[in-house]
Each structure stands twice: as C-alpha cells, then as structure tokens.
What does this fold into?
Amino acid sequence: MSDFSIPTYPRIRTVGSFAELAAAPFTDGVNALCWPRALAGDFGEVVQALSAGEPGSGQPIDVIDEARLRALDLSPAGRAAVAAILDDLRLLREQERDPVLNCIHGYPRDEEAGPVATDVFSWHADSAPVEADTWLCTYHGSPSEGLRNEDAVRRVDVPATRAELLKLYGGADDADFRDFLHEHCYDLHYAARPDAVPYNFGHFNLWRIAVDWPGSPVSPCVHRAPATIPGQPRLMVIC
It folds into this structure.
C-alpha cells in the first residue's frame, strides 16, 4: 500500500487515472498533479536483485533498461512489481515521454557550490526553455519531497547570499548578473522558511509537476531529493 496522505495545499490536485493525469492543466495556481496509487508486488526484492551483482550495478545512479528488468530472477511478488514498472514505462512512452528508471544508491554533491548549492538535495525547481513538465514516481526507498511555494525563498533573493554572489560575479547587480545567476542555475534554488513543513511524495504515486519555463501560467513546483540512506537504494522513474 502507498504511505501517501494528501497534503492540504491548494497547489496540489489529485486525479484518478493516468489519462486524467496527462490531460489535467496547470491552472488556477495548481503546479503539482498526483495520481495516488497502491501497487501490488515486492519492489524491495527488485532492488535487492538489481544490487546483487547485476551488470551495471555498483554505480551511484544505476540506469535500468527493460531487458535487464525482465531478466531478473524473482518470486511472483517480485515479478508483479516488475510488471507494474513496465506498465508505467509503457504509459509514459505512449505520451511521447522519455522515462528513465534509476536505482539510486547516492547522488553527487555540489562540492564547489559557493554561496548556493545546486545539487538535487537542495530545494529547487526544474526548468526548460520551452513548455515542459516533470513526471516522477518512487517505488522503493525514500520518496521525493516538496515545499510549498509560500514557504520557499529564492536563495538569490536573500540579501546576504546575493551579496556573496555579486562578489563571486565581480560586477554590478544588472541584467548581466541575472544572466550569470541563470547560467549557473543559482536562481532555481530555494531556502525553506524557518516554519516550513515539507510534504512527502509517497511511494507508488505518479506525479506530474510544473517546471520553470517562459510563459508558464503557474509557479514551478519546488522539490528535492531525500537524504540518501545507506543500504536503502531508491528505485524511481523520472522523465
């Protein structure tokens, strides 16, 4: 069963099917669409099999192709989990998406971030030069986390941080400086307000979230990857 409880937040809308998830517009401030689900199968067994000497394992982020997934030696419960994942991949491709299934043991950290860290552990918004959105689902391991837009402050708008970035840039706070912030993705990262309460994306739920693109009718969904827990890899699809 899914461990998801719907946050009381008007920017999140839940839907009852994949078709509704694909068709629902981002409008009236809604920037996160969620299809809450309970999926049958043993996803932990799938992760264990992927991590037990399979070709390609041992990498922090292991990209899993369908052939490898189908070839796993699994119990009926494990095969049911694989069938659910394969069905999601099929549905996403039918929507002309390019889904990627990852078994994640850890993420690279931004070792030279300067005033603003830009790795996936930082609260951030995805961006694109044209209309786009992000789809994701966590099957096993710690789920992604979201932050209400009202609880998020762009790090570049924090006076002390902006002063440090200006010093790093070495120029005036002008259009070229704003281009500098954008080129380095500094303007996509956020700090949580002291009283902020993040929400959990849960397991098995398929999400479609708004990204920052020119002309978007809504604010992007602010989110982050969870802290990595040793010995508990994440299995997730994203596109």
Residues 174 and 180 are 10 Å apart (CA to CA). Helices lie at 18-23, 43-51, 66-70, 76-94, 159-169, 175-183.
